[in-house]
Amino acid sequence: MSGSLATVEITGIAAGGDGVGRTEGMVVFAPRTAPGDVATVRLARSKRFARGELVSLEVPSPDRVTPPCPHYTEDRCGGCQLQHLSYEGQLRAKGMIIADALRRIGRRDVGDVSVEPSDAQWRYRRKLTLHLRRVGATWTAGLHPYDDPIAVFDLADCPITDERVLAIWGDLRHVFDLLPREPALRVAVRLLDAGAAVVVEGGAAWPYADRFFAAVSSIAELWWKPDHGRMRRLAARSSESQSGASFVQVNARVAARLEAHVLERARSYEPKRVIDAYAGAGGTAIPLAAAGATVVAIELDAEAVARFEDRLPAPSRAIVGRVEDHLEESLPADVVLLNPPRAGVDARVTSALQDLRKPPRAIIYVSCDPATLSRDLARMPRYRLTAVRAYDMFPQTAHVETVCELVPDSA
Hints:
CATH 2.40.50.1070, Rossmann fold, alpha/beta, CATH 2.40.50.140, 23% helix, 7-stranded mixed sheet
């Protein structure tokens, strides 16, 4: 980055983890800075804001710590964004990110948001996806630098990842030449209840898949998504699928606490009918149905639905499809659960809920992105935000999980 130098006081953290300050009336976003830093940064200006590259610290933030991972500093690893902050500082920063988004984008009057800490700050990740690059006979397996989305550095360790995952990655490195013969691939290792799944993305042909699977005894399942095809399971050591290609909770302990909270809040309304939108593997639909509610679970992943639909007692049922295609026909309901991917919900979902003649008694929205959460809440002004609870599912990163509880304004 070339540009002028400026001294900037960092006053906050942006959603992606960059520090935020101002110079000459312009907002500056500077990676690897912390609230309380006074830093010299090199500016790259655009019309509305500037990107800042940290050159030196004039006054370090009291929240600043030395990152323990060499990749974070030497390779500018983009996998983590907040290792240079104390854990208490990370939690405060994430609370600021959520509150700012709810006020600025969601137009909701909220106070400070506290974030419940993770049980583990390190070695919590049960899944690790690496980018593989091949030049001749040489393979590189790693992550992108935060300032270069094309480059890949070779990963020696990832201290937020479970050592069992890293051990499997060590086994895989010995058999990279049995992968599809492509210059670039994405490969994920996911811990399962028993063993682990490897998911390979890329390539048009894979003649050595059987040899690859046989060579790594630590793999329980092998999945492949070719460049122009569907994901499919190629091999398994057991006839029972563990759904290794479906969503895997990265931080299982925090996920369990969040799910328990969602269930407790849903049950507090004593609902007779619940719509569980983006139902995943049925973790909330099954216990709610078992407690006597009629649950309509909507989920796009047919494999995930197949694993839990038989456990829903009639008249509860599961629907395979997009929530926006099936929500209206499934309403009304006493409680609606929304747990969408990072992109948030489709506008048809918020429109359906906003325009209902008889609204649900509560909407419980679980989000992994404060910005899309806030956008969706702004689309539903008839619902009042009564509670916000946040969970630090991903320590050392800027990601955070938020649970919002909404009721109709007349309630």
